[in-house]
Amino acid sequence: MTTERKYILDAPTAAVKMERMAYEIAEQLVGEDAPVILAGIRDNGVVMAKILQELLRKIASLSTSIIEISLDKRNPGLITIDQEISIDNKIVILVDDVVNSGKTLLYALKPFLEQHPRRIQILTLIERTHKAFPLKADYVGISIATTLQEHIYVEVENHIISGAYLE
Questions:
Q1: I need a labelling partner for 36 at 20 to 30 A (CA). Which of 4, 78, 83, 89 fits?
Q2: Is residue 49 within 8 Å of 66, Cβ to Cβ?
Q3: Taking a C-beta distance cutoff of 8 angstroms, is the pair 36, 93 a contact?
């Protein structure tokens, strides 16, 4: 049995969504003097964080840096951040491609809760409407209703979001 891919985003639409979210960040953080840390969840979240950083450089005077979060969904106690960095009094934006149940994002928040950030926000390209955990993204590219059996995949080619599909 072959599963047919139903594309919900193409590359140009994904680029527009990313740009819109960058503008939303710039508007939300106008007047903020705290540095912004874009914390991308490997792999696609890191690609998105790099795209956002480039867009924010063009439209806002925010000081941004990127960190990479790795976690094993089968063993969520093992969370690694690619660099030691203080987030005290900084704004952290956790970036992931798809919010399904919310579980991955909750696990990814853990190391940040051990410090004292000024604010933690969540950005996702695609948010599914049936989360199992009380989590709300601050910046959403597209919100989509799916069945529990369907999965959403985001494709990245050469550090560009090339599409997203439902399977």
A1: 78
A2: yes
A3: yes
Q: Which residue has the tokens 């690609």?
A: 47
As beta bridge partners, residue 93 has 38, 121
Residue-wise burial string across 108-118, b where 16 or more C-beta atoms lie within 10 A, e elsewhere: bbebbeeeebe
In the block, residue with structure tokens 């696990």: 107
Give the amino acid at 17: K
Q: Find all residues with CB under 8 Å of 32, minimum gap 6, and list them.
A: 62, 91
> Is 34 within 8 Å of 28 (Cβ atoms)?
no
- Residues whose CB is less than 8 angstroms from the CB of residue 55 and which lie 6 or more positions away in sequence, other chains included: 18, 19, 22
pLDDT at 65: 96
The residue-averaged pLDDT of 144-150 equals: 87
pTM score, two decimals?
A: 0.92
Neighbours of 124 (CB within 10 A): 27
Judge whether 71 and 45 are in contact, CB under 8 Å. no
Give the CA count within 13 Å in the CB-facing half-sphere of 107.
Answer: 20
Burial (CB < 10 A; 0-12, 13-18, 19+), residue 50, is middle
Q: What is the largest CA-CA distance in the chain?
A: 55
